[in-house]
Amino acid sequence: MDTLTSLSAVPDYTRCPSGILDHSLALTIGFAAGFGVSFIFYKIVILSLVCGILFGIVNVFTAAQSAVSKRMTKLRIQFFDLLEAVSVAMRAGSPLYRALQSAREDLLLLYTENSDIITEVDIIIGKFNNAVPLSEAFTDFAERAKLEDLASFASVYATIEGKSGRADEIIRETQQIISDKMEIEMEIATLLSAAKSEANIMLLMPVVIIGLIGYSGAGFMDSIYTTTTGRIVSTVGLIVYIISYILARKFSSVVL
């Protein structure tokens, strides 16, 4: 392990980990969705192109936020695995520093060398080798990761560092707390998965119905596309649809 490398390559978890291809894919999907929906409501190519471009740009930022959230969720699971490996090593009598080194080898059985948790363990060990206390290394990790569980652990460890021989018990208790919270969240996610699927179907159905009637209704909806009143009705319907979409996504993300 290269200490200098571990200290210089400090991840910023508030930045999007996606690359150019991911952004391009998000832009394409957003453009296709925006163009398709607006064309179904208006049947105006120029307007649909503009809406597609705007929605594509919005979807790039939305996808970037989602990627950051997924990375933090994955890091939280990896941190739980780290605590589990450290706890096992400390129960065998190793001090925390040696337990971290042992845990790194165990984690390599689960994660790749360039995974976030392996990088963070290397940074912590590298800082310790440069006379930085483990409490400061954990605190720095917590500040960058923005994880409540990690922040709580760093705060508790900073309080008891060098003052208590119960570090192994505290790590085990922290691991158990995180495990209980994750188990509850998984149960909630399972209970809400059906509701989220139903919400997605309900969001899709209005567009499908309008599209089917508009293209196979034998002129039934021509007034929607050719009169001022019809345009106003289409606009109001589209606004209601967009608000419903935003609220459905926001509610599901808040609950989970």
Q: Give the overall pLDDT as a whole number.
A: 83
The N- and C-terminal alpha carbons lie at a distance of 37 Å
Number of alpha- plus pi-helical segments: 10
What does the overall shape look like?
elongated
* Main sheet record: none
Structure characteristics:
single chain, about 260 residues, mainly alpha, elongated, disordered N terminus
Verbal overview:
The chain has 256 residues and is mostly helical. The protein has one domain (16-255). It is built from ten helices and no strands. The chain has helices spanning 3-8, 20-42, 45-91, 96-107, 116-129, 134-145, 148-160, 167-216, 222-226, 228-255. The protein is elongated. The protein starts with a helix and ends with a helix.
SSE blueprint:
Layout: H1 3-8, H2 20-42, H3 45-91, H4 96-107, H5 116-129, H6 134-145, H7 148-160, H8 167-216, H9 222-226, H10 228-255
Helix pairs in contact: 2-3, 3-4, 3-8, 4-5, 5-6, 6-7, 7-8, 8-10
Question: Could you give a short description of this structure?
Answer:
This protein is mainly α and 256 residues long.
